[in-house]
Amino acid sequence: MIRIQNIYYMLSYAFQVLNEQGYKQVATEEFDNVAELCAAILIKGLSLQIKRGLGKEYVVQSEPLSSLRGKIDIAASIKQQSMLKKRLVCNFDEFSVNSYMNRIIRTTMDVLVKSGISKDRKKQLRKLLIYFSEVEPLSRESINWKLQFNKNNQTYQMLISICYLILKGLLQTTSDGSTKLMDFLDEQRMCRLYEKFILEYYRKEHPEIRASASQIPWDTDDDYREMLPVMQSDIMLKSVDKILVIDAKYYAHTTQSQYNTNTLHSGNLYQIFTYVKNLDTSNSGNVAGMLLYAKTDEIVLPNNDYKMGGNQISVKTLDLDCEFAEIKRQLDDIVQRYFDCS
């Protein structure tokens, strides 16, 4: 379980823009479900973005024109018989608000307006849609989420991420074509947020250690690594002489059960052990690993520390169904215990 308000705090660490003054009101609101929370964040974010100005980009336009512009499309001109009207089809670039990111946002707004969120938020969205009158919606299924962000469009990163959560994790289409709210974000979407939240929390709250999501090189004897898979850590915490690798896991079940016996997920344990042993090339024992599961309401929950080949491997849970101050304490305790921080 996780409190809805805590999802806002998790998003605030994942996307620091939510800590700005314009979002303070959202932080104090009570929400019945995550979709209402995400809709509120999107509305506030779009209101701020509209004040800054909607982002524009060069978009290819194709139109039959009486005067030349850009490049002539002969094939299209013949097909449309535009020459009979003394026109030629021209392809040209136009600096337009009909950018791909704005189209994703327009699509999300259209879907939310038809969903089960509150009437008040629908009313606010309809007011904002006026500014998107020149923006064409996309098909939800065809959206390409692999977008590049830079200093010119970085204010869109959080907005697009909220759109992703809404379209992929919170809304589903029923058999009659209508849209309804799901009770909660699915495991895949929550897992990504859970990982990013923990990483960004340590980056912000513990500058005394270095927090990153670093790749781990294979410790091969001859440096030959052809075709070896990439080892990508979720969170790597480093001090001068110690390393803690954390694999953040958000599952409905933190353990696997067979014949009334609960055991750890073997794949997860093998993975964290592999990370640690390939990092600790000198066998110093100063590299540790942790599987950090989001706590569930199961009776049996892991809380174990193992010594494996000279390295510490821990399996813990993080309780997200509590006051956020308690979540902070749990995360701080991990650093204090391992890095001996006061």
Automatic annotation (TrEMBL):
<dbReference type="GO" id="GO:0016787">
    <property type="term" value="F:hydrolase activity"/>
</dbReference>
<protein>
    <submittedName>
        <fullName>5-methylcytosine-specific restriction endonuclease system specificity protein McrC</fullName>
        <ecNumber>3.1.21.-</ecNumber>
    </submittedName>
</protein>
<keyword id="KW-0540">Nuclease</keyword>
<dbReference type="InterPro" id="IPR019292">
    <property type="entry name" value="McrC"/>
</dbReference>
<dbReference type="Pfam" id="PF10117">
    <property type="entry name" value="McrBC"/>
</dbReference>
<keyword id="KW-0378">Hydrolase</keyword>
<keyword id="KW-0255">Endonuclease</keyword>
<dbReference type="InterPro" id="IPR014407">
    <property type="entry name" value="McrC_bac"/>
</dbReference>
<dbReference type="GO" id="GO:0004519">
    <property type="term" value="F:endonuclease activity"/>
</dbReference>
<dbReference type="GO" id="GO:0009307">
    <property type="term" value="P:DNA restriction-modification system"/>
</dbReference>
